[in-house]
Write a structure and sequence with these properties.
Length: about 150
Amino acid sequence: MPEPWLRETELPCHAAVAAVIFALDQAEEDLARIAPPPSADFHLRHIAGSLDRLTTYLENCQLSEAQLAVLHTEEKGSGESREQLLAACRQAFEHTRKVLLKVPAGQFEESRFIGRQRIRTTAIGLMIHIAEHTQRHIGQIIAYSRAASVA
């Protein structure tokens, strides 16, 4: 099967948003094809958590106390099983897609603010970062998976 961006799927959104969604679809499919080793657990937690946080910023909101609490446990985790981590990723991918589909092209250049320091970016810049950041961590998981299968 071709990669998501080559499937001639038409999405009800601007082509730039569709490209971000296709990148997320590819990341999710890559994740489903591999068996992440325990060394990849941080990346699974981080994908779910960062998608949640970045999507919150895309919606022009600041993080809640619950999101900040998750952020503080992301490095070491809180005893989640592999299935819980993968389910959290699937849920984050789904939620992010829904939010992305709501962003009209007329808002692409609008400011969005990241973190307590309120670092300025644009909505389209944030959407692109959501895709590339997620793919970066999927790449790490793939590398860990390959290394674990060789060992």
